[in-house]
Amino acid sequence: MVRKTAALLLMTALLLSACGGKDEAATKNANTAVQQQDETKEKAPAKPNGNGANQDAGETGAEQGNGGSGQPAGGESANDAAPAAVPLKYHMDKAYNIVPNNEGTEKKVVLLTFDDGPKKAEWINGLIDTLDKHHAKAIFFVNGYRVKENPELLKLIHDRGQIVGNHSWDHISLRKEPEAKVRQQIEDVQNIVKATIGEAPVFFRPPFGEGGDVGKKVAKENGLLYMTWSNGSLDWTMKSKGKDNPQQVIQNVMDQLHAGSNILMHELPWTAEALDELLTKLESKGYSFVDPRSIELEMR
Q1: Residues 6+ positions from 31 with CB-CB distance below 8 Å
Q2: Residue 171 falls in the annotated catalytic set
Q3: pLDDT tens-place string over residues 60-100
Q4: What is the CA radius of gyration of the chain?
Q5: How many CB atoms sit inside 10 A of residue 50's CB?
Q6: Is residue 164 within 8 Å of 197, Cβ to Cβ?
Q7: How many Å apart are CA 74 and CA 66, to the nearest integer?
Q8: Catalytic residue, candidates 115, 116, 188, 235
């Protein structure tokens, strides 16, 4: 189109030049227009091609080898495409187990959760490295005061693709607290997490499993799925110098294993050490790891 426009301008200028004295100016203007348009084409910024690389302004879809689809050859989606929504395949029952919504959906699944963070990048990265190795997602239930102290660690969990849950601000038992206090403990975490990573949690676990009726009410009002657990690793009861801590974490989980297990663990060094072997054992038993985003936010 640029070349056709330039050619038309040049022809117009030549016709005008045959008519007399004004025509030299017209020809000069036409030539100037051609030069400017050619320069504009040469300076045109490269267009992004959707995968982080730059595509020449004149490159066509056929030259990309993908039929002009805007995707890399081979059918892969562009990196900046919106992530696909995770279908809702599971729900939580009143015993806090994960249950398939429909017949035919895999029943032998477990939900992985880690409480009381964020504490240390070393532990978080150790846990997530293992989760990534096993293609697993988990909920990291965080305390507000820890997020305030270490906002970069919350961003680390989120940026590495894991799910953030609400574990109250101060890690106190909420069962006997007045509603105003319970609301503050829950909603302050909602606010600081959203301010830090751009989205609020949708899962809530009360400290010690003690939320009470008021905790359940406030959680629901904030769009949170309230849960405790159905398989406790007991990693929080172990002493820091226990050499067999990792093996004990594994044994505790395996002893309580059942379809839909909601496994409670913590951001602790011996849990991070145990996780790879634990997940390997679970897989050897035919279990897979439910994506928390596939769980409905209503218990039934």
Answers
A1: 10, 13
A2: no
A3: 333 333 333 333 333 344 344 556 899 999 999 999 999 99
A4: 30
A5: 16
A6: yes
A7: 8
A8: 115
Number of residues that this document lists for the chain: 300
Paired strand residues for 47: 55
Contact 122, 146 (CB under 8 A): no
Instruction: To the nearest 10°, report the CA torsion of 175, 114, 144, 203.
Output: -70
Catalytic residue among 91, 167, 188, 266: 266
Tokens found for residue 276: 């790879």
Angstrom distance (rounded) from CA 103 to CA 169: 39
Residue written as tokens 């989760």?
131
What predicted TM-score, i.e. pTM, was given to this entire model? 0.74
Q: Say what the pLDDT of residue 16 is.
A: 40
Which amino acid would we find at residue 279? L
Burial class (CB in 10 A: 0-12, 13-18, 19+), 113: buried
Residue 106 to residue 290: CA distance in whole angstroms: 9
HSE, CB side, 13 Å, CA atoms: give it for residue 75.
0
Is 23 noted as a catalytic residue in this protein?
Answer: no
If DSSP states are collapsed to H, E and C, what string results for the chain?
A: CHHHHHHHHHHHHHHHHCCCCCHHHHHHHHHHHHHHHHHHHHHCCCEECCCCCEECCCCCHHHHCCCCCCCCCCCCCCCCCCCCCCCCCEEECCCCCEEECCCCCCCCEEEEEEEEECCCHHHHHHHHHHHHHCCCCEEEEECHHHHHHCHHHHHHHHHCCCEEEECCCCCCCCCCCCHHHHHHHHHHHHHHHHHHHCCCCCEECCHHHCCHHHHHHHHHHCCCEECCCCEECCHHHCCCCCCCHHHHHHHHHHHCCCCCEEEEEECCHHHHHHHHHHHHHHHHCCCEECCHHHECCCCC
